[in-house]
Specification:
The chain is α/β, with parallel strands linked by helices. The chain folds into 2 domains: 26-435 and 442-496, Amino acid/polyamine transporter I, CATH 1.20.1740.10; 512-644, HUPs (Rossmann fold), CATH 3.40.50. The protein is 61% helix and 6% strand. The protein is built from 23 helices and 7 strands. It has helices at residues 3-12, 28-41, 46-54, 65-89, 95-104, 106-135, 146-162, 169-196, 222-236, 245-248, 257-285, 316-324, 329-363, 381-397, 402-434, 438-501, 526-537, 552-564, 582-595, 613-616, 622-630, 646-660, 666-669, and strands at residues 208-209, 299-300, 515-520, 542-549, 571-575, 600-609, 636-644. The strands form 2 sheets. It has a 5-stranded parallel beta sheet with strand order 5-4-3-6-7, with helices on both faces. A two-stranded antiparallel sheet has the order 1-2. Helix 8 packs antiparallel against helix 13 and helix 15 crosses helix 16 (438-501). The chain is elongated.
């Protein structure tokens, strides 16, 4: 086993058989944390965005945070109700991509796929950035190093998923239920302390907020204020991200699958709404002051003087927890830890969803087929690495600041929502044409009405998001969506063209008129003799050896040795005044092909194989480059004739010993060399 194999084994673990693919069905209490973590985690940053946007008009605008939160909750309720119809209609786990493709066509499906891909990337970037920002409130060294920590976290998540760690109830239950307990417990204790009159003000309550340009009292217009509230609403709609996850995972539920999935959706919506409104309520009661982290100059002390240069603004949850549990520090750290964990779980959910979607797109010819290949640990490794790379780019580009990333986040989510709901309306309309049972028709009409309401609300939100956030960064998402769409359509066009070209025609079964074989010669040695023998065995119509003359003295010696050995194959020398090797050979092969268009030119390339990677550096790669050039020459067939040197034989023996060696537990796991026959380690010959 080489150094690269050892490193791969240490990082990723042992290979798994294909038969290990699969999982167990989940009850509702286990499915809830698996699929709800993404949506619930948005509670950690959606209220922050509402307060941040309203702060542009000063502290007085915080009075509208209730109304904005309720508006977001109404949309969330409508979307949850709409997706409950989707899980009943597609119990096979179609998801937005399948719903749009089946009911609206491939163009709509490709658009949804583009939106989902962008959404998954932003889920990782936003969740990790929010987790790092939250952790900074409790861990001092994280503050100021958010980008480095965020990149390290993404790398860790990628490594964990490359090892094939799969979604499971026990793994996801602890962070999800801990976060629920933390937020609910913080809310209950905060309201109790408010009732007793002991609820303290937040750490930022004494600060003043300077209005942003254009929002100062006396100059702000009604239209500008409405636009500001709309921006706060569109930012708060980040709470809707992840709602669609359950519609993708219906097959993972226990029977009755669709009913259990619909119940889980209801619990998800109720929990997300309750926690979001709780955070907004406590933030108002504790008079939290929260502004854009990149515009902290607007946050000043009561006397108007600036804050200390080392002041670090904590998130809403961190400020609320610090005040509510000011006499109980362990509870504060529990809230912070639970919030960080749920955000990391949400990011990990994207690491499961993105590669699976990539594999589906690869199957449909909309993505490179490499995305559909499983790695050693049965994970879609290429998709995981691609997602990690894009997430790291965003974290570095936006300095791990969730506020900046949120501006990119909502567009893709609501594009998918809109097309999915439109597809569901088309689905129910088609079903109604053939359904005659009155009760079934009433259910379908009710479902279509619910999806119609969901479409209307998500369409309004999408318009608001585009209008209020386009210049704030949403244009980047629109550009990314268009880029993904065009790339996927180009990939599909390429695969379609290749498929058409590979169709068998009548003349494809005709034999070539002649085979002109040439054996490339660099020296008269064992690899050359083996290549000549193999070429003779193929019985071509014409066989000749070819040598490229780059040094007249070396050429004379080779001709002399060729004659001395009495070789029965003619040797043709190609003169190369500029000491090129590849060009003379390719031009000679083309000339033979041009002289006999219906014939075939068979080029035999002798190669010797070394067993150590460092030994490859000691030999030129002319044969490899020559094969690459000849592959583009029509009518030319290239055959490599390997000659294994002693080091390659030793390497093969080491590999064989590694394969036949049985490790402890291999047979029990079905991975040992005798596992497939049922034999034990002693039975392996």
């Amino acid at each position: 086993m080489g150094l690269a194999d050892v490193s791969k084994r240490i990082l990723l673990g042992r290979k798994l058989r294909t038969t290990r693919v699969g999982g167990t069905l989940l009850p509702k209490k286990a499915a809830f944390p698996v699929f709800a973590s993404d949506a619930l985690s948005s509670v950690a940053y959606a209220p922050d965005e509402i307060f941040l946007m309203l702060s542009l008009a000063g502290v007085s605008a915080y009075a509208y945070s209730w109304q904005v939160g309720i508006a977001v909750a109404v949309v969330l309720f409508a979307v949850v109700a709409s997706y409950r119809q989707t899980v009943h209609a597609y119990p096979g786990g179609g998801g937005d991509y399948e719903v749009a493709t089946v009911n609206l066509g491939r163009g709509a499906g490709t658009t949804v796929a583009s939106a989902l891909l962008v959404d998954y990337v932003l889920t990782v970037a936003v969740s990790v950035s929010a987790a790092v920002q939250t952790a900074g409130a409790a861990v001092e060294w994280v503050s100021g190093n958010e980008v480095a920590v965020g990149v390290a976290v993404v790398a860790l998540l990628a490594a964990v998923n490359l090892r094939g760690i799969r979604e499971s109830g026990p793994l996801f239950a602890l962070p999800t239920y801990a976060f629920l307990l933390a937020i609910i417990g913080m809310t209950v204790w905060g309201l109790v302390r408010e009732t007793w009159g002991t609820l303290p003000r937040a750490e930022s309550a004494g600060f003043q907020i300077l209005e942003a340009d254009g929002y100062t009292e006396g100059t702000i217009t009604t239209l500008a204020f409405v636009f500001l509230v709309a921006r706060a609403f569109s930012s708060g709609c980040a709470a809707l991200t992840g709602v669609e996850a359950i519609s993708n995972g219906v097959p993972a539920f226990r029977k009755p699958k669709s009913r259990n999935a619909a119940t889980t959706l209801f619990l998800l919506g109720a929990g997300a709404i309750a926690m979001m409104m709780s955070v907004i309520a406590l933030a108002n009661l504790m008079e939290v002051r929260y502004v854009d982290p990149f515009d902290l100059d607007r946050l000043v002390l009561p006397d108007g003087s600036p804050l200390p240069e080392d002041y670090d603004q904590n998130t809403l949850i961190a400020q609320i927890a610090a005040g509510v549990f000011d006499t109980l520090p362990p509870a504060f750290f529990f809230v912070i830890a639970a919030t960080v964990l749920i955000l990391l779980v949400a990011a990990n959910t994207a690491f499961n969803g993105f590669p699976v979607l990539g594999s589906i797109l690869a199957r449909d010819g909309l993505a490179p087929r490499q995305l559909g290949a499983r790695g050693d640990r049965l994970a879609y490794s290429n998709g995981i690495l691609f997602l990690a790379f894009l997430a790291v780019v965003l974290i570095v580009a936006f300095e791990a600041e969730p506020t900046r990333l949120i501006q990119l986040y909502i567009v893709g989510v609501f594009v998918a929502f809109n097309l999915s709901q439109l597809g569901m309306i088309r689905h129910w309309t088609r079903r109604l044409r053939s359904e005659t049972d009155p009760a079934a028709r009433r259910r379908m009409q009710r479902s279509r009405l619910i999806n119609g309401i969901g479409l209307a609300m998500t369409a309004v939100v999408l318009i608001v998001v585009l209008v209020t956030k386009f210049l704030e960064g949403a244009w980047i998402t629109v550009l990314a969506l268009g880029t993904f769409y065009l790339v996927m359509r180009s990939i599909r066009r390429h695969y379609d063209n290749v498929g058409d070209e590979l169709l068998i025609a009548d003349d494809d079964q005709l034999l070539p008129t002649r085979v002109h074989a040439i054996v490339l010669v660099s020296k008269v040695h064992k690899p050359t003799m083996r290549a000549l023998a193999y070429a003779k065995a193929s019985r071509p119509n014409l066989l000749e050896a070819v040598y490229v003359d780059t040094d007249s003295a070396a050429t004379d010696r080779l001709l002399e040795e060729w004659d001395e050995r009495g070789m029965d194959v003619p040797l043709k020398v190609l003169y190369s005044p500029y000491r090129e090797i590849i060009r003379p050979i390719t031009e000679y092969a083309r000339s033979i092909r041009a002289a006999a268009p219906r014939g075939v030119v068979a080029v035999y390339i002798p190669e010797y194989v070394v067993g150590r990677r460092w030994e490859q550096l000691l030999h030129n790669q002319t044969a490899l480059r020559l094969k690459g050039r000849l592959l583009f020459t029509p009518g030319v067939m290239v055959t490599s004739v390997p000659y294994q040197l002693r080091s390659s034989v030793l390497a093969e023996e080491r590999t064989a010993r590694e394969f036949t060696r049985t490790r402890p537990g291999d047979v029990r796991r079905g991975e040992g060399p005798g596992a497939h026959t049922g034999r034990g380690p002693k039975d392996v010959p």
